[in-house]
Amino acid sequence: MTNVTKLTFIAGGVLVAVGLIAYVASGAVSLTALIPSGLGVLLLAAAVIARNPKLRRHSLHASMLVALIGIVATLMNTLRLGEVFAGTAERPWAVIASALTFVTLLVYLGFGIASFVQARRDRT
Questions:
Q1: 1-48, pLDDT tens digit by residue?
Q2: By the 8 A CB rule, do 78 and 102 touch?
Q3: Which in 66, 71, 79, 103 has the greatest CB count within 10 A?
Q4: pTM for the full predicted model
Q5: Measured distance between the N- and C-terminal CA atoms of the chain, rounded to whole angstroms
């Protein structure tokens, strides 16, 4: 199993946990709190598929696309993190979950891109 595949498992697991914790912490009233878990499940599925060497590259590229979409989708809520610290956030758990999702996916995407660059260098 490659390092990126392991990182995909880790990032997926973290996101599943973030979504479940946010759902419970928000009183289990909004299913949108589970969005990070949905992203995590997609990453976990990509990691399982990536165990097949023939499908690894395609699966990990798909997981990077999921990460990129997740980063864009959580950016606006993440920018409201100051409101949480100021105590003025309307839905603080949503902002915190979005920020954790954003950071997790950003780190994952950064390491994934670095790994792809290194793999390309190793081939040439």
A1: 678 899 999 999 999 999 999 999 888 888 888 999 999 999 999 999
A2: yes
A3: 66
A4: 0.90
A5: 22
**What's the token pair of residue 57?**
């590259």
How many degrees, rounded to 5, is the angle at CA 33 between CA 3 and CA 29? Answer: 155
Q: How far apart are CA 8 and CA 4, in angstroms?
A: 6
How far apart CA 106 and CA 93 sit, in angstroms, is 20
Token pair of 112 as six digits: 């994934």
Which residue carries 């097949």 as its tokens? 52
Side-chain half-sphere CA neighbours of 124 within 13 A: 5
Calpha distance 21→11 (Å, rounded): 15
